[in-house]
Amino acid sequence: MKTVIITGASGNLGTVVTQYLLGKGYRVLATADSESTRAAMRSHDNLEVSTLNLADEKASGAFVQQAISTHGKIDAALLLAGGFAPGNIASATGADLQKQFSLNFETAYFIARPLFEHMLEQQNGRIVFIGARPALVAAQGKNTVAYGLSKSLLFKLAEYMNAEAKGKNVTVSVVVPSTIDTVPNRKSMPDANPADWVKPEQLAEILGFLVSDGGAALRETVLKVYNNA
Fold first, then answer.
1. Most buried in the list 78, 110, 184, 207, measured by CB within 10 Å?
2. What does the alpha-carbon distance between residue 104 and residue 226 come to, in Å, rounded to a whole number?
3. DSSP 3-state assignment of 86?
4. How far is CA 111 from CA 3, 90, 106, 216, in A?
5. In a structure prediction context, what are the per-residue pLDDT tens digits for the chain, which is 229 residues long?
């Protein structure tokens, strides 16, 4: 049984991805941001949920080390936690930058860093970040500056990690969705056509493929999952 860490597992995307991988026979080590969200998650024999402040480097490192100590090997990680904020250059303050940096980069880096070292030792592993189109397309990023800048760091981090891991069967991928079809997004954009968006179930299949044996040959992967949005 392969063991996968999923951060942000209680979110709109994380809930679907967690259930998808459990259905495929994976052991899932999930994180939740509070006891209430942890308690609300659907139980499963192969699901372990930990309450964790992902912006706490020490706590995140301890979580990874405990997972390795308990299970011996972590095969993959889907780092889904993050947060969004609008704002152009005129309105994006230093505080906004710091908040988005913490939500979208530190929460991924603090888990990925110790896990990457473990995978290098094992000479096997998969790490997947969730990118964002505003980090790639300036026309969209100009109105989400703090968010786009924080997400852009994940692409560079993946490049650095892949360069270090070359030849060791450890890969880092970035999946870039457009708008995800969730209840909050439908409420915030009532005039948009959600049929053009990406469904969480579609992303779950793509993420599942990246960590599966079928995706083992992929290298330096950036997948733009835009549908028609």
1. 78
2. 20
3. coil
4. 15, 32, 8, 21
5. 999 999 999 999 999 999 999 999 999 999 999 999 999 999 999 999 999 999 999 999 999 999 999 999 999 999 999 999 999 999 999 999 999 999 999 999 999 999 999 999 999 999 999 999 999 999 999 999 999 999 999 999 999 999 999 999 999 999 999 999 999 999 999 999 999 999 999 999 999 999 999 999 999 999 999 999 9
Instruction: Give the list of residues 6+ apart from residue 98 with CB closer than 8 angstroms, or none.
Output: none
CATH architecture type of domain 3-225: 3-Layer(aba) Sandwich (3.40)
Q: Is 71 exposed, middle or buried (0-12, 13-18, 19+ CB in 10 A)?
A: middle
Which sequence spans correspond to the domains of the chain? 3-225
What is the three-class DSSP state of 142? Answer: coil
